[in-house]
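Deliverable D5.2: sample structural annotation.
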Amino acid sequence: MSTTGTIAAFYENIRTGAAHDGIPMADAVSALCESGLRGLYISYESTLEYADEIARTLKRTGAEVAGLHAWVTFGKSGTQARRVIDRAKDMGTDHVLIVPVCEGNDTETLIAGMRDAVGYGKTRDIRVYMEDLDQPDSPYNSINGLGMFLDRIPELGCCFDTGNWIMRGEDETEAFRRFRGRIGAMHLKDRRTSPINPDDEGVRILDGTFRYPAPVGKGNIRIAEILSMAEGWPMVVEMYGYSPKHMLEGIRESVQWIQGE
C-alpha cells in the first residue's frame, strides 16, 4: 500500500524499542530510515528531556520532524498550548497535535482552549490539530464528539487516528469520509482482538472487551481502504502498548507495509 505522504513514527515508540535492545536512538532511527522511514513525530516533553539526543539523531539520519504532539490541560493557564506551538516553530515543523484535557472534561473549557491555541498557531504559522481519543470518558472519543469540536472551531484541523474509533465501535471508514476535508495528518494505528505478544498492552473499550496494538496491516482496522482514499498527508506509525522486545521490528514492518513491500 503506497502513499505519497512522509512516513514517520512516534519518537517515543522508537525509543522504547531502542532502550530494550540497548542501542542508541540514532542507530535505531538509521535502521528504520533504510526501510523507508522519513520523519519523527515527537512529544513536546521529549523535545525538552531528550533535546541533545534528538539533535544528534536528526543530524545523523536526516529525518525530519513530522510534527509535535502534547497533552495540554486547559482551565488553569492559557500558556501551555502556546509553549507547545512555540516549540514546534523552533523544531522546524508545521503542525502540532494537541490532546486537550481539563478537570471534569468540561466541553466549553476544552473548546475555548483549543480555539485560543488555533488562533495563536496562526500567528506562528503552525497548524493545530485534534484527534479522536480512545478514552472512555473523553468527549471526543466518537465521530459526533470530534465533529462538534471541528464544527465549532472552523480553522482547527484533524489528525485522523485510524485505531481510536474502537471505543464506541464506530466504523473508521465512515469517520474518515466525514472528516476528510479537515485532515492534515494521519496516525496509522492497527488493532486486534487478541495480543500478538504476551506483553502487548490492550485498551478496554466501552463494551468491556479489549483491543491490542499490532503492526500496521496486521490488525483488524481497515487501514488499506482508508489509505486508498487518503491524500499526501504525513502518515505516522503509532504502536503504543506493543511489546518493547518487538517494537522496532513492528515499526519496520509497518513502514514496509505502507510502502507496499
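Annotation notes: The mean pLDDT is 96. The two ends are 8 Å apart (CA to CA).
The annotation will be released with the project's public dataset once the embargo ends.
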